[in-house]
Amino acid sequence: MMDPQPRSSSCRVAIVGGGPAGLGAALALRQRGIDRVVVIEREAEAGGIPRHCGHPVFGWREFGRVLSGPVYARRLRDAALAAGVEIRTRSSVTQLHPGGGVELASPAGLEQLAAERVILATGVRETPRSARLVGGDRPWGVLTTGALQSFVYLERLRPFRRPVIVGTELVSFSAILTARAAGMRPVAMIEENGHTTARWPSAWMARAFGLRLYLGTRLVDIRGNGRVEAVNVETGGKTATIDCDGVIFTGRFLPAAELVRSSPLRWDSGSGGPVIDQFGRCSDPAYFAAGNLLRAVETAGWCHREGRRVGGFVADDLQDRLPRSPRRIELERGPGIKLIVPQAIEVGLTDPSAMLQLRVDRDLSGRLTIDAGGQRLWERRLATRPERRILIPLQALSIPPGVDRLQVGFTP
Amino acid sequence: MNAAGTGMDGLFDVAVVGGGVVGCAMARRFALEGARTILLERSTDILAGPSKANSALLHTGFDATPGTLELACVRAGYAEYLEIRERLNLPLLETGAVLVAWTEEEAAKLDGILAQAHANGVTDVRRIGRDELIAREPHLATAAREAILVPGEHVIDPWSAPLGYLHQALENGAQALFSAPVERGEFDGSRWRLDTPRGSVSAALVINCAGLWGDHLDQSLLGGTDFTIRPRKGQFAVFDKAAAPYLRSILLPVPTERTKGVVLARTIFGNLLVGPTAEEQIDREHPSTDGPTLARLVEHAARLVPMLAGMPVTAAYAGLRPASEHKDYRIRAHAERRWITVGGIRSTGLTGALGIARHVWSLYEGLGSRHTAPAAPVWPRMPNIAEHLSRDFQQPGYGEIVCHCELVTRREIEAALTGPLPAGDLGGLKRRTRAMMGRCQGFYCSAHVCAIAKGRIAMPDKLGETL
């Protein structure tokens, strides 16, 4: 089998991923007068994760009303198209090259797309069973929320009737809504910590729908021949068996950073996404990134605003209004700090809206600190938990001369 | 009653019981020699048992016990795989292996291993010092002392190989019957009648390739057996494709008396696997994994290759090797009963299968049977799903990419659902195409794959009721 010669084409900005962030970036670029903006979307329609999510709540900040996921996705897509964005669907980017070239595959064949700038907006996915190292048999009926939503909202299929839900993040409650909408009766919700991860609607919602909520409980293994028959759980040293016919692993989102990891771009083990500066610029200045690829996980609305913001910076860059600073500062994570985004700051170029985003990897209370060598630049008293968003305005930091690294830490 | 869909009045020269890699290779050999052959498989597709869960290595036999039938079959199987693989379009990832000594005690054993390799006829095996080892594998932990280099150990595709074998058997006149466990059988002095839920089959000879159930089949139909299956479970963890650059060769440990130990190897699909464990168990139905063991495998891998620390795991699985109380294969012809048992094919079955099939054919000829081989056998080409070779998505007109992680096209899925050996269930579809086997494990594509496959293959109970 001979590989056909790839076609070549060019554009000003190629945006990889047509979800809320990618469409937001595309829209901002067009509104700034940048032409030949191409969104590359691997699915049959742009719109991203909200397209799979047939229940509210989307769009309050963007459109001033509550929309279902698919309606919200369609609005974002229509807005981008009306602004003159080219959306190429069923097109998969397979490789990123230094300086902005991307390789893509579509049913029309392979293509080399030379772009002056590339914005990566490939989003997130949930952590499946295998990556959580959950043992047992390997029957059918083990899904993530995303897969469940595709079964129910895209394919109109019901994969099971009495699933157990693993996790208590916001998306876990989306799993309950999806399951109920398809006539399923989830039987239990399992959470390793002693409290639910999501602040709201948490426990009362589980009870309202007749699920038993198991806090402080670990999923030991999954049992079943052919399909799921039960799960074994452990609470405080005691084991129990829960009869069910499916398992939904919810949340523990991970940036879909495969392209980054197989590219020359720097990748951050904390966030799981590319290393960026406060403008969303990657280690190769032809590349920018936005949305949940930067860190898991924020809402669709957040990602859309972030996409618009980074789109604006790319427009600045193309119009020679986004210089590179001679001083670049790297941020180091101390114990307890799961991630910091951006991972680098270009000193002296900060726009007033720039924020440092942090998350912790355990329940913490004490002082969140930012130091330069031995010198304390900033601190704040805080009690927080994993998956809670922490924001620090960059303007709050006055970075002394001669410093090239900052340490972010937590002191009890 | 004749077996449904065989179109041969249910009369065969040979019935092969079991659709694992050995059964598939057996059906191929007998079909290519001109015997009217049928393969009976109890599940809805081939490779439902141990053959779907192994380390996917093509062994040279350098470390096999000298003088065993296992060594002879592995050597013959290795040679035949290399001889036929291009015609069947079966992939080969030429990695070589390094058997690394991490301690002084282990280093002291290398000379013995080297001598055994040479005695086994694997003459290109040699000792390499630390410098050459590190030049070859720069990401190994610093404790690596020295090694034995086995240039001929390679990585293959554990699924397309048996698929290709049975596919070629079918293209050359063999038949296969699925959902057909042998429930009863009777020998009338010249022929066997095997009863399955899908009908009865009459064959002049039965070859028992029933793997984990081989001793039971011997016992129930032949009235006795000279081995007992003692399942040995092997758990594996598969790292994300981002791990593959950190290892070039297959990384072997110095073996112990009981086991060859835990291996690190790239897969033909671009991942990196660690395993297997070796756990004796009674149960033959549940190749289950357990979290703590998987975590230990992952830690072990990161100890040997530190860059693997924190690397995500894409998949975890376990297989039950059909080992017996004997160290060697249990292959025996019962001439008067027209029955050949192929039992105790433990961890080397993937490499050994083609050699085992040749050996069994020679036993069969020794029983006095003669056939006329087809003058121009058909060589069907298997679709490629190996990462390092040209893939379907690189050719225009594929419709859509269904599985984004593994870049599986609609055209590949349609092909796997049709043809002489279509997928019989979702597992078979996964193995033929890689759909749902990537890092997201079906987050994006499982619903779409089920919608495409629904009504065309056996689905698990209640999976995919229409809303």
TrEMBL record, chain A:
It comes from the Bacteria. InterPro entries: FAD/NAD-bd_sf, FAD/NAD-binding_dom, Metab_Enz_Cyan_OpOx_G3PDH. Keywords: Oxidoreductase. The keyword Transport does not apply. This is FAD/NAD(P)-binding domain-containing protein. The keyword Glycoprotein does not apply. Coiled coil: none annotated. One of its GO terms (molecular function) is oxidoreductase activity. Residues 12-307 form the FAD/NAD(P)-binding domain. Pfam families: Pyr_redox_2 (PF07992).
TrEMBL record, chain B:
Residues 13-360 form the FAD dependent oxidoreductase domain. Residues 401-452 form the BFD-like [2Fe-2S]-binding domain. It holds the Pfam family Fer2_BFD. One of its GO terms (molecular function) is oxidoreductase activity. SUPFAM superfamilies: FAD-linked reductases, C-terminal domain, FAD/NAD(P)-binding domain. InterPro entries: BFD-like_2Fe2S-bd_dom (IPR007419), BFD-like_2Fe2S-bd_dom_sf (IPR041854), FAD-dep_OxRdtase (IPR006076), FAD/NAD-bd_sf (IPR036188), G3P_Oxidase/Oxidoreductase (IPR052745). CDD domains: GlpA-like_Fer2_BFD-like (cd19946). Gene3D superfamilies: BFD-like [2Fe-2S]-binding domain (1.10.10.1100), D-Amino Acid Oxidase, subunit A, domain 2 (3.30.9.10), FAD/NAD(P)-binding domain (3.50.50.60). Keywords: Oxidoreductase. PANTHER family: GLYCEROL 3-PHOSPHATE OXIDASE, GLYCEROL-3-PHOSPHATE DEHYDROGENASE. This is FAD/NAD(P)-binding oxidoreductase. It comes from Hypericibacter terrae.
